[in-house]
Design a protein that fits this description.
This protein is α+β, with helices and mostly antiparallel strands. The protein has 2 domains: 47 residues, Ribbon (Pemi-like Protein 1, Chain: D); 30 residues, no CATH class. It is 30% helix and 16% strand. It is built from 3 helices and 2 strands, in the order αββαα. Strands 1-2 form a two-stranded antiparallel sheet. 0% of the residues are buried.
Length: 86
């Protein structure tokens, strides 16, 4: 990760509290237009972290998978359907 603290870019707060993330930081974080970021206070500074939002159903499914609450794999669709109906 690039260290730009010696000559950190200065940006202006615009209408509606909008702040433009400098290109070097934007690219270093791997951000894309439309991405979400989390903004928190750390000591006396604002910390901006990239955030991935996960659909609640997908999050629950991933939790089930990690906890071992799964069945399968199945060799056929019929076998999967049979397991779901049992």
């Amino acid at each position: 990760m690039a260290n730009i603290t010696n000559r950190a870019p200065v940006v202006k707060i615009r209408t509606n509290r909008q702040v433009t993330i400098p290109k070097i930081i934007f690219e270093e974080l791997g951000l894309n237009e439309g991405d979400f970021v989390e903004v928190t206070i750390l000591n006396d500074a604002a910390l901006i972290k990239p955030k991935k939002l996960v659909d609640r159903d997908l999050s629950e499914a991933l939790s089930d998978l990690k906890a071992g609450r799964v069945i399968g794999p199945f060799s056929t669709a019929e076998a999967a359907i049979k397991a779901l109906n049992s």
